Amino acid sequence: MFESAERDPVMSKDDFAAREGALRTALLQRQYALLEKADRTVLLVVAGIDGAGKGSTVNQLNEWMDPRNIHTLAFGTETPESAQRPPLWQYWNALPPKGQLGIVFDSWYAPLMAEASSKHPDPDAIAFLAAEIQRFEALLAADGVQIVKLWYHLSRDAQAGRIRKQLADPATAWRVSKADRLVHKRYDRLRKAGETVIAATQSPHAPWQVVPGADDRMRMVTTATALLDAFNRKLPKVVAQPAQVGAPAFVLRSPHASMPAAMLPTAPMSPESYEVRMDAAQARLGQLVRNKAFRDRSLVLVFEGIDAAGKGGAIRRITHALDARQYSVMPVSAPTDMEKAHPYLWRFWNRLPTHGRVAIFDRSWYGRVLVERVEKLIGPEVWRRAYDEINDFESQLQESGAVVIKFWLAVSQEEQLRRFNERAETPFKRFKLTPDDWRNRDKWEDYRKAADAMFERTDTVGAPWHVVATDDKRQARVQVIEAVTNGLAKALGKRGL
């Protein structure tokens, strides 16, 4: 795999001069074409052995191209903010929009490389990390991100010589890190680890290319050529979907939730019983989120359901129990232009809470398999893939300490019509009623089928669906807040609180 790079090929000044002008011109032209068309994001992942000239090459790329449309993304030591969210959060958060080029240092490959290069690498850990990377890259590639992965390598002697040369010059000595100095001692282990990483994460939609790093000119021309080839290629088709790569971290519930079960008639709750149970549930929820155990957790609440099913009323009963500084309510509607310029899940990754906070989504990432499916805004291959993408997303939330609780609020057609008419006749409620609400009634059966498929594919043990009948608002609101308190108490180990 590395034999060619370890021969340390050299490019003469004349050969470099003959190619430099054409490469620079072509890269600039393709960069501006990408910016104008904005049909994809190009992500250049820079990895490889320390001391192989990665930083110098990226600096020169910024000189050859227009740096205003290049995002150089460097991820080093974990920050307190990123430590409270899933490991991939920082990469999602920094992802450039379509039309832009992102260059990634210290990428999602760092944990895998660290494990593979340890004295006693764990094959299971390597397999897990590689599968997570495969799912992540497949999701990005399927949603408009072209991934170009370059692994920089050189021989042991060339690496040591390059470090000595840089240390001898005060102008470049600052570039030499502690890791650079130690490479020659760990060279064989790092080389083997590199082979393991590349073999475990090679894919048609995100292939690796090895770049010889000993000679500055050869390294630069190889890098520029690889990037230009990527610019000139069509966005690759994703062959393996996220669910097919590695073992998923979620387990579906059996039997799964269903909407018909929630539509059975229930006895109306009396105002007196409602007040007693609601007050008790709100007090309990307030205690739970102030508990010391919640400082290392977060709470993510998802509300979906039929129009006029009472999502807003249920959410207000929850927020009444919380400190306004501790929660965020995020109504989700049609994506903005900036959100459309990123992969679908990007806008939700950007809204994840830190520990000790509550995020409430009034509609959510499930729009992909509901409204976008029913309204035919996307093709079947997209919404079918989305089930496992969503499950994987929620699994990552749970692994980082989030408690995920999902609600589907169901209302009968008769009660929905009554509420629509009430809204139309009440001045301060008219804003809630839109032409889309009436139009969606005509697609009732389509939404029911989409919801049932969603329950079947995303009702997981870790993030189950709670399907709540809402014809009786009091009954529904109490069921919702008690489900929140019970779920959070169980996660915190505070059953008796």
UniProtKB/TrEMBL annotation:
Pfam families: PPK2. Residues 12-233, 270-489 form the Polyphosphate kinase-2-related domain. PANTHER family: POLYPHOSPHATE:AMP PHOSPHOTRANSFERASE, POLYPHOSPHATE:AMP PHOSPHOTRANSFERASE-RELATED. SUPFAM superfamilies: P-loop containing nucleoside triphosphate hydrolases. The keyword Transferase applies. This is Polyphosphate:AMP phosphotransferase. NCBIfam families: poly_P_AMP_trns. It comes from the Bacteria. Keywords: Transferase. One of its GO terms (molecular function) is polyphosphate:AMP phosphotransferase activity. GO terms for biological process: polyphosphate metabolic process.
